[in-house]
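Quick one:
INPUT:
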């Protein structure tokens, strides 16, 4: 067995174990954008088939933008069901990023056109959902379904931030995607905040 096939086999271990327990529609969930100073948090939920594997799925942060976009198209094409949801900066400020991420994940799962039998999420979050669930720390790199969800969420959010870059060009959103780079922080100090900044994240630079 080649190294890539060995890696993919390891990444399918969680799904295969759950299928052995009788679960068929296994949903992977991940988020992108918990840490940025600007823009929404985005969550994706995806149910992938057992017999049509997309090779190369990995933690979205490890992949080039070109590779992510190619995999994003394949995942959407082959998925049994997928959904993407977002929570805007204003709501993040109102409820805090942890609760906003939980809500975003829940909304993505409940937006699926097919009801999952089991949900696996990245990290250590327990969600308020009506499905059996399990979380896997580092799941975006070690679990196929979560990795697929991370790619959908990352590609979607990056496109949002590229669009915002045209509206607010001085913050460099096309490069930093809203994260707190030195150039981004300098722009906040010089220009102040724009409507997509998270006030609860940027208070120390904007006061």
């Amino acid at each position: 067995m080649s190294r890539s096939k060995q890696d993919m086999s390891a990444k399918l271990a969680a799904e295969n174990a759950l299928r052995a327990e009788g679960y068929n529609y296994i949903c992977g969930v991940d988020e992108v954008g918990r840490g940025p100073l600007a823009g929404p948090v985005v969550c994706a939920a995806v149910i992938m088939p057992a017999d049509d594997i997309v090779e190369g799925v990995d933690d979205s942060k490890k992949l080039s933008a070109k590779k992510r976009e190619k995999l994003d198209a394949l995942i959407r094409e082959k998925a049994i069901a997928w959904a993407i949801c977002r929570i805007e900066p204003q709501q993040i400020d109102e409820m805090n990023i942890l609760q906003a991420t939980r809500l975003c994940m829940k909304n993505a799962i409940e937006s699926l056109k097919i009801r999952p039998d089991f949900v696996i999420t990245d990290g250590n979050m327990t969600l308020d959902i009506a499905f059996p669930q399990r979380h896997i720390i580092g799941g975006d790199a070690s679990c196929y379904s979560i990795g697929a969800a991370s790619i959908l969420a990352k590609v979607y959010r990056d496109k949002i931030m590229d669009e915002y870059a045209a509206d607010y060009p001085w913050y460099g959103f096309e490069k930093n995607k809203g994260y707190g780079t030195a150039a981004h922080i300098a722009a906040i100090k010089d220009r102040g905040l724009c409507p997509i900044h998270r006030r609860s994240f940027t208070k120390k630079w904007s006061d």
